[in-house]
Amino acid sequence: MSLVIPIFIPHEGCPHNCLFCNQHSISGHVAAPVTGAEVGETIRTWLARARPANRGQVQVAFYGGSFTGLPSTRQTELLAAVQPFYQQGLVREIRLSTRPDYIDRDRLDLLCHHGVSIIELGVQSCDDGVLRRAGRGHNRADIEQAVRLIRERNIRLGIQLMLGLPEDHFRTLRSTVETVIRLRPDFVRLYPVLVLRGSGLEELYHRGGYRLLSLGRAVVLAAFMKKRFDDQGIRVVRMGLQPSTDLEQSLVAGPYHPAFGELVQSRLMLQRTRQALAGVPGTDPVTLVIAARDQSIFRGLRSANLVRLRQLGLLDRFSLRVDPEQPRQTLRIVGTDWAAGTQTPPGQPLDALPSPSFLTENDKSTGQRTASFNQR
Ligand code: SF4
Q1: What is the mean predicted confidence (pLDDT) over 189-205?
Q2: For residue 164, which of 23, 130, 185, 213 is within the disulfide window of CB 3.0 to 4.6 Å?
Q3: Cα(160) to centroid of ligand 1, in Å?
């Protein structure tokens, strides 16, 4: 497992004022800008506490603001502070986030010179109208140009997207997803728009000019996006903002949930369970196999998935088994008449399903942990 050492540079270097943005609320930092010496001290502290398993897989991540919007002397100060650790191999990767219009060849020269290997672009949307309404100050052409330049340097690329921006409808969201798929990032992060205290969106919201996304709708949209990216082999590494006291105190309204990502994965698991069972002929119960760590996703928040499966009359159609070898977020069926008890039904691509977690009975005859939903 890798250890991420976070360095917060909230709002530094950013002259923009995106409608939704309140960087202080998100990062929880309103203090003076971090110095190079403090960066070094932070890294030393984290390394001293690192577990042996984490050593050798340490990443320093500059969060917040727009790193490459800082003056080059300031960028150099921050990156230079990481160099002693990087050159000794104590830090393996350096990651930062920035805006698409703050990427050019000179800036990338500086980053490459200091070993930056991952850049996350705050893209938010690929629709020019949505970007304009959000006051982003860049357009889709800037995004495509930045991606091209980053790719030229073989730097890994992450893309951050938002759902629920003003004037972003399903059509524009879907178009954004398809554009991002064509850009082939290494990973994406999905953030539902929240109304934060002090942001322009708060004013708009209080004036009645912004219609909130409900939590349920945000989950549905994020599930759609995740499935598209999963299908294309693009990792979704985060869904929803990291919960924190600062964030919760700044939150005015919006689809916030501390386990937003799990809600999305549970929804996808329910879809895939239904899809899997729909492909099974006859009425004999089958066994669904999931990864042990996916049990809670399978169950859903407050057993919502099980309730839904019961409503659909599907809860008696299967028992659940946990297999340590089953990849996470996947599901397979065993024990059916039509496939000698071992195969996935034809046409059912069950190997790419999101998974859950909640079974506990021990099947002593097989040594596998099993349970049946209708017993619970
Ligand atoms: S570019 Fe980033 S830091 Fe700057 S205002 Fe917009 S969201 Fe905030």
Answers
A1: 96
A2: 213
A3: 12
Q: Is 14 in the pocket of ligand 1 (CB under 6 A)?
A: yes
pLDDT band at 32 (very low <50, low <70, confident <90, very high): confident
Assign 3-state DSSP to the chain and report helix, strand, coil percentages, each to 5. 45, 20, 35
**Architecture (CATH level 2) of domain 3-258:** Alpha-Beta Barrel (3.20)
Ligand 1 centroid – CA 10 distance (Å): 9
- Domain coordinates in residue numbering, the chain: 3-258, 268-375
Report how far ligand 1's centroid is from the alpha carbon of 367 (Å).
53
Task: Report residue 119: phi and psi, to 5°.
Answer: -120, 130
Q: Which atom of ligand 1 is nearest to the CA of 15?
A: 4
Query: DSSP string of 228-272?
Result: HHHHTT-EEEEESPPP-HHHHHHEEESS--TTHHHHHHHHHHHHH
**What is this structure's pTM?**
0.86
β 58-63/93-98 pair status: parallel
Question: Ligand 1 pocket, 21 CB below 6 A?
Answer: yes
Count other C-beta atoms under 10 Å from residue 195's C-beta. 22
Q: From the alpha carbon of 136, which atom of ligand 1 is closest?
A: 6
Contacts of residue 192, Cβ cutoff 8 Å, sequence gap at least 6:
162, 163, 164, 213, 218, 221, 222, 240, 254, 255, 256, 260
